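Re: Re: ligand-bound prediction request (bumping)

Still looking for help on this. To restate: I need the protein modeled with phosphoenolpyruvate bound, output as structure tokens. Inputs repeated here so nobody has to scroll up.
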Amino acid sequence: MKLIISNLKMNFTLEEAKSYKEALDTLECKKNTLIICPSYPYLSYFNGKNYYLGSQNIASRKMGSLTGEVSIEQLISLGIQYAIIGHSERRIYSNEDDHLIRKKMALCFDYHVVPILCIGESLEEKEKKLEVLKKQLDTVLYDLELKEIIIAYEPVWSIGTGNTPAHDEIKSTLQWIKEYMKNNYSIECKVIYGGSVNQRNIESLNRIEEIDGYLIGGASLKIEELRKIIEILEVKK
Ligand code: PEP
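Reply:
Sorry for the wait, this slipped through. Here it is.
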């Protein structure tokens, strides 16, 4: 079973979101788990039976006076069971740091929402990748009471660029994350890969056994490309 997580980001007008949703309802995803993360305003339209709902973010506080934010309780009332936390676009464009991300993770655990924690190195940090990942994991998770968690390894330089790391690098990084979480947090978690996944590279990526699933941005916006990716993953064990 692989996780297929579609991050629709800040795309689609309401009409476009509705027609995407209609096409989504015709997708067959039986062996794997499909999670759709639309923009907040469209969450209530995405109520299909063949996928779960995730949010692209949550507010760092529970409820109340935080203009322009959306709380985890509100998101749960719209049907989410998963939340993307610490996506690199939020780290870069909304100045989210690991301390803020930690608060959001704690809220997810309190409310039994499964966080999809995004970690990954920038191009400049490539040489010290494991050090960067270790710091991100520890600042965010140290001393929290962990529940179910999905970790998305997303090299920042791979997101939306068409460039992916060499497959043996993905393999060893995912192996390292799994071992690190087991040894330091006593938890076996699903670790997924994100960064320029598409219908052309999914088959070869899927030969990497360590990958428990994919966080997909650009390619998931095109419903026929998402269908193709799902079909390819359906025929694998
Ligand atoms: C992402 O934004 O998390 C992502 C993986 O995007 P893309 O698939 O477009 O690289």
